[in-house]
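Lab notebook page, bench 4
Experiment: in silico fold of construct C2
Operator: M.H.
Input chain length: 208 residues
Purpose: comparison with the prior construct
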Amino acid sequence: MTTTQSIPKLLSFDDYINDYPDDGKQYQLIEGKLVEMMRPIGKHEEIGGFISFELGLEIRRLQLPYFIPNTAAIKPNRPNTGYVPDIIVLDREKLVNDTYWEKASSISLGISAKLVIEIVSSNWRDDYLKKFDDYEELGIKEYWIIDYLAKGSARYIGSPKEPTISIYQLINGEYQVSLFKREENISSLIFPELLLTAKQIFQAESRL
């Protein structure tokens, strides 16, 4: 006698947001499967908090129609996938056109986000490969990868490998990258007056 095993159902993005586990953990949807997000280590949290604070100051100073949510998911064009970035800067004026925002604190349109930031942890390939492709295809204007432990391969951050911030800016539908290290001042099209060096971000040091 032979037995057949049922193939687990691949979750859609709507399944992901409608039936999100109520267990206090955080998940992303990767190719139809829930993947638990690892609890970040201290430095990861320091950098994330520092960047959110500095960008929040710029938003308030310039009175921009942007805000930084605590958590928000992104539905890329890739099927059965949903990402929860470390930091996302949203545009209030564009969210009215995004049907996922009010019902699920999620976005599906690239114009809803001005900037997405990923702080590299163990799965660096996701940040440099999958998310790069998906954010570019979605049309998100700017994407930062903060690689404070220099985990990415040399093809992405150069050789010798050292802590690097890669800033990808969408130009004619494709991301163009600039790399920032040590005392170099970062350059952002979304926040052109932001005065921060790569070192300040890596060490989460105040400008004051």
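Observations: The first strand starts at residue 27 and ends at 30. The longest helix spans residues 42-62.
Next step: discuss at group meeting.
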